[in-house]
């Protein structure tokens, strides 16, 4: 039976291509090597960031093949830090966020294609001369169709279950820095078509307070049909726009009839800065494993592992210290992009 045959026909929208669930089998994982000194002016912190990316790639490579995208001139440095299991491709990069700038692979059950949601540096907030071309370069390297969309945005800004349901924050899409000429209804229709879905849950999100305009993948993740794992503050601060938006998203997911499982943010984490992203929800599911962050709060870290075991039984849970990514506003899921098996 093909993947397409195993899904409801309603999932196969538009041209018949759809994005399978992240937990379905992968051919490989794609990642990006961070190098730009315009993005990372501190050379010491850039070294720390590269080390974190290498450790994520090496952990995933124990479960499935990993391809690291980097300009040829950056391969020697990367090779010293990467496992021999990680393959390097000569595709130039600036930053590490492959979930956003990288290829979005879709399938019709018979072949793969790349859906082209155009990356523009989160609304031209960051240099993206190289990163904006990555999806096209990967499509050319793999000789895959590049399927156009009218959208500018990032895959980290929409969560999908692979069974016809999407969720997103309006702030990451209905925003003049991405899609100024499109209404929410037009954006929704384009997203549903791009992902091969038929239903969408919106909540407002937060405009202009972080580079992503509050990507949903650092807050809530689908773990199967009708199931969501969401990372909430244990004691919400009514003056914090992210706390209030997180609660709104929780309520919208529950109102949609989903089974919403809450895990709480760490309290005693290593990095104390207010803008540090301490998200247990920003994990990555690979073949046989889940790679997630730990933040140094033993109780909260253990509770997060227990939640991941509940939602992904039979998979090995690997936790890593990736604090540099949290300081940059993201996490492990933001740094990865899956290529589905067909």
TrEMBL record:
Keywords: Hydrolase. The keyword Hydrolase applies. Pfam families: PAD_porph. One of its GO terms (biological process) is putrescine biosynthetic process. One of its GO terms (molecular function) is agmatine deiminase activity. SUPFAM superfamilies: Pentein (SSF55909). PANTHER family: AGMATINE DEIMINASE-RELATED. This is Agmatine deiminase. It comes from Litoreibacter ascidiaceicola.
């Amino acid at each position: 039976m093909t993947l397409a045959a195993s899904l409801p026909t309603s999932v196969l929208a538009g041209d018949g291509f759809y994005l399978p669930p992240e937990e379905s089998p992968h051919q490989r994982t794609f990642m990006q090597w961070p190098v730009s000194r315009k993005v990372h002016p501190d050379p010491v912190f850039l070294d720390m960031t590269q080390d974190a990316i290498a450790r994520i790639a090496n952990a995933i490579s124990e479960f499935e093949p990993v391809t690291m995208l980097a300009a040829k001139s950056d391969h020697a440095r990367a090779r010293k830090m990467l496992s021999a299991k990680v393959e390097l491709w000569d595709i130039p990069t600036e930053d590490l966020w492959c979930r956003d700038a990288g290829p979005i692979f879709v399938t019709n059950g018979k072949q793969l294609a790349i859906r082209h949601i155009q990356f523009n540096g989160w609304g031209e907030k960051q240099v993206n001369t190289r990163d904006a071309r990555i999806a096209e370069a990967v499509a050319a390297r793999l000789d895959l169709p590049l399927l156009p969309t009218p959208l500018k945005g990032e895959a980290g800004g929409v969560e999908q279950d692979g069974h016809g349901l999407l969720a997103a924050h309006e702030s990451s899409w209905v925003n003049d820095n991405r899609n100024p000429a499109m209404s929410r209804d037009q954006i929704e229709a384009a997203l549903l078509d791009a992902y091969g879905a038929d239903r969408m849950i919106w909540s407002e999100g937060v405009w202009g307070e972080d580079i992503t305009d509050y990507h949903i993948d650092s807050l809530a993740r689908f773990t199967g049909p009708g199931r969501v794992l969401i990372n909430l503050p244990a004691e919400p601060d009514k003056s914090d726009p992210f706390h209030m938006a997180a609660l709104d998203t929780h309520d919208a997911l529950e109102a949609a009839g989903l089974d919403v499982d809450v895990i709480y943010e760490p309290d005693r984490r290593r990095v104390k800065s207010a803008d540090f992203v301490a998200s247990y929800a920003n994990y990555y599911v690979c073949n046989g494993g889940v790679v997630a962050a730990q933040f140094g709060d033993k109780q909260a870290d253990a509770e997060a592992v227990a939640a991941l075991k509940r939602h992904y039984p039979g998979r090995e849970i690997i936790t890593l210290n990736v604090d540099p990514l949290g300081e940059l506003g993201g996490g492990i899921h933001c740094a990865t992009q899956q290529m589905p098996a067909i």
